Amino acid sequence: MTTTEWITDIALLLIVFRQLREGRLDLKSFLIPLGIVAFVANSYLDTIPTAGNDLVLIAVLVGVGAALGIAGGVYTRIRTVGGHLLIKAGAVSAVLWIVGMGARMGFQLWVEHGGAADVARFSVTHQITSDKAWVAAFVLMALTEVVTRLATIFIRSRSRAVTRPVPVLDHTA
After folding, report:
1. Most buried of 62, 69, 73, 131 (most Cβ within 10 A)?
2. How buried is residue 42: exposed, middle or buried, by Cβ count under 10 Å (0-12/13-18/19+)?
3. 86 in helix, strand or coil?
4. Which of 36, 57, 49 is nearest to 145 (CA)?
5. Are 140 and 37 in contact (CB under 8 A)?
6. What dihedral do alpha carbons 105, 106, 108, 110 form, nearest 10°?
7. How many CA atoms lie less than 13 Å away from 58 in the CB half-sphere?
8. How far apart, in whole angstroms, are the C-alpha atoms of residue 103 and residue 116?
9. Could you report the per-residue pLDDT of 69-85, keeping only the tens digit for each?
10. 3-state secondary structure (DSSP) of residue 76
11. pTM, whole model, 2 decimals?
12. DSSP for residue 46
C-alpha cells in the first residue's frame, strides 16, 4: 500500500473515532467524510468493469456497504440539547464502520502479501475479469457505506430537529 492509501484508510477510520465523543451535528459532519470518499473515488475509480460477473461482485460489495452504512447510522445517537443537534457514534456503529473500512484495507494487505494467487483463482472461477473489478467493488463499497450512513443520520436528524413555535397573530381584540 502506498503512503496515500495508508493516510486515506486511516483518515476514514478516524472519522468514527472523532464521533465517539459527542459533538454538534453540522455541515462539517457531512462534508469531511464525503470529501474523503470523493477523493478516494476520484483517485482509484477509473472505470466500472461490466464484463463477466464484475457487476455481480460490485453489486454484492455495494450491498454490504449499504447494509453497514444504514446500520451504522441507526446505531449513532442523535439528540437535541439547547437547540442544537448532537451526534455520538455508539459502540455498534464504531464496530460496523471499522469492519467495513477495515475489510477493504485487510483485503488489500492480504492481496499484496500472498493472497493474489487465491484472488486470481477465485476471479477465474467466478468470471471476474480483472483487478479493476475488485478495485471498483471495494471503492464503491466504501463510498456506499459512507453515503448511506450519512443519509441515515441526516434522515434521523430531521425527525429530531428543533421546531420553533410559529408566532400566531391574535385577531380577537
Report:
1. 69
2. exposed
3. strand
4. 36
5. no
6. 160
7. 21
8. 16
9. 999 999 999 999 888 89
10. strand
11. 0.82
12. S
